[in-house]
Write a structure and sequence with these properties.
Blueprint (H helix, E strand, L loop, with lengths): L1 H18 L8 H16 L6 H8 L12 H24 L9 H34 L1
Helix pairs in contact: 1-4, 4-5
Length: 137
């Protein structure tokens, strides 16, 4: 179930977030079902605390389960999508008959998107550590 979610269903919701502006509020019901139905079944518990949900939302490389809270990442992903497709969008608007990809520029954009995500999750993890530090001591 976990692999199907992380590598399947969540990708569809991420596509929706990348292509639809302002969709984060509309995905609250989905997040409710992920937090209160899917995760409890996955870990065998009746209830998942907010702190545990936040930990699970972290990428696996940062100690989470990569079960992202799409409501929190939707605007970031939409912004990244706009950044990645800006040149192509402009070529379409200008009705250019030939579109040449600037590989150097695209590489820079890809690196910027990776940095945006890393910065987002670094800040998210930092806030989470501040929130959890009194509980751990």
């Amino acid at each position: 179930a976990y692999a199907g979610f992380v590598y399947g269903a969540s990708k569809r919701w991420n596509f929706l977030a990348r292509t639809t502006p302002g969709v984060s509020e509309l995905l609250n019901r989905l997040e409710y079902h992920i937090k209160d139905v899917f995760i409890p079944v996955l870990i065998g518990k009746l209830h998942v605390s907010e702190q545990l949900r936040k930990i699970f939302a972290l990428p696996a490389r940062m100690g989470g389960l990569s079960i992202a809270n799409i409501c929190q990442t939707a605007e970031l992903e939409y912004g990244n999508s706009i950044l990645a497709t800006e040149d192509l969008t402009n070529a379409i608007y200008d009705q250019e008959s030939l579109y040449n990809v600037d590989d150097t520029k695209q590489s820079g954009i890809i690196n910027q998107i990776k940095k945006n995500r890393q910065d987002f999750y670094d800040a998210y993890k930092s806030e989470l550590e501040k929130e959890l530090s009194p509980l751990v001591q």
